[in-house]
Amino acid sequence: MKTRLLALVAAIGLGFGLAQQANLKACFIYVGPIGDVGWTYAHDEARRAAEKAIPGLTTQYVESVKPADTLATVDRLVAGGCNVIFTTSFDFMDQTLEAAKKYPNVIFAHASGFKRAPNMLTYMADFYQIYYLNGLMAGALTKSGKVGYVAAFPIPELKRHISAFALGVRAVNPRATVNVKWINAWYDPVKAREATEALIAEGNDIVAFTEDTATVIQTAARRRVPSFSHYNSMYKYAPDYVVSGQLVDWSVIYIDILKKVQNGTYTPKNLENVDYWWLARERAVMLGAQVGMPINPKFEPALKQATMVVNGKRVSVYDRVMELYKDIQSPNPKWDPFTGPIRDRNGVLRVPAGRKMTVKELNEMQWVAPGVVGPVPDEPK
Amino acid sequence: MEEVLNALARALSFGTPLLIACLGALLNERAGVVNLGVEGMMALGALAGFAVAYGEGGNGNLWLAVPAAMLAGGLAALLHGFVTITLQANQFVSGLALSMVGLGVAGLLGKRYEGLPLFDHPPEGPFILGAIGLALLLAFLFSATRLGLALRSVGENPAAADLLGLNVLALRYGAVVAGGALAGLAGAYLSLVYRPSWTDGMTAGLGWIAVALVIFVGWNPLRAIFGAVFFGLLYYLQFRLQGQSGIPSEVFASLPYLLVILVLALSGLRGQQGNAPEALGKPYRRGER
Fold first, then answer.
1. pTM
2. Which of B199, B238, B243 sits opposite A374 (nearest CB)?
């Protein structure tokens, strides 16, 4: 009898213990509205996926938070019982660090930044490799030799992406240019449309972009100009014109972090050096017009016909894209677009022969690759 | 030449929502009521239009979408009318509130339509021609009809208009609601034609440009056509000329606003408020002067 009671008590205790460990509340602070079809939408999709994948996890989110309100939002979330708080915009960096100091027992995770603390890690899913692959396709498909690019802000992230894209374009078509228009906004469909119109008027016959709406794709399709998805599956906006694109899946990062918090690997004391820089290898980013469609079948024939020279051998652009995509998805990728020798567009050697750029260099990149045309603020001469 | 035509086409395409919204604001301002809520009414119109056009999965009714957008804008304006005409509250404060409430409500109600593509969308042409036709119609209304004269007198001197037996309140209500309906139509152009899809915040400040445009064109519907095309051209050129002229694109982006300030300053120098209706922004109370 006594042993049974003991067993019962132990079982209840165990149950409590488990329940306590499983009782994980992750909260997300978003910079934009969850329906922006861009950055915030992707984070929210991942939040929902994580909630499904991890038993015992509850989540909460606050959207359209101004960077200046980060700390106040954290206060509210901590009061509401959040154990892990994700701040999903670069602008949230300093206030997240402040919040991490204020709440040493809460785990913070900040996207795309570089400041960490014992209870604050950083994470990023980066596209630069995928951009190169899209560049290859753009280089193969352009007839005018002019590729348009609608870009949000001249920050290192975009310079890295535009440069990788331009390196890809030029690998196929050494005389082609990538013509950049800055709209100085993450979200402004009106500016995005007029910038696209301007690019097409200038003779660009294929366009790529980095901003948070599908406007570029919709505008280009009206003018029968092919384009690339950015961030989310945008194939549905123009099934005849979306060639491929770069897609994100933040859920692999969120699930990894939250599982490690749940099983005690991550504590509020050991995150000082935890930085996720996840790429295609970790499946955080994908190549595709939409999930599951790396290349729109409509463009396959043209890409198979187009050829380029790789190590003295002539191969089809399609095969090259697929070969490289396979490589960057493998456990130990051999290839990287930023492998030297690489000069910037002013002729200065930026990556010596045989060296790859480090994550730090990629994050601080201010120069742009040859072929990029247009004003680039803060460019070293 | 092709380049010029293309720029003109862009100016018309982008200028059309500006022109429609500007004409709406101009109409109610001519009757003496300022409505700064254009941005909010545009957002409501954009959403209402898109929701009706999209229906359940892209099979909605395009023909009903436009009236729905005008209805949404008109209803929002009716609220502004009630607060400022009947309750005689401050028009500027009420309009500001309306712009924020409109954006917020549209954002909230629009969640389920966020980012959906609208494949079956109307062409731009009829809207562009319609907007220009509307400007001509308003010009005719103000200069050659009894109704136009009545609206103007209500905006210039409501007490005198009242003495003449005009129904000041009814005229002002009518102008405000019609102005709101036009703002809604401008929003529908964005979500049905220009984009075409709905996202929160898609009006991107165009409503405010429209409000500024009214002052810029001196409350004249004909000049509004050229004003809207001019603004549209500058907006396009900030991208077209980016990196292709020595002039920073920010100059083009800020030029419309600088011009508005300039026009205001010039009229200020002349010791008058430009062509602003005399009783603009003032609630009308019978027996008060």
1. 0.87
2. B243
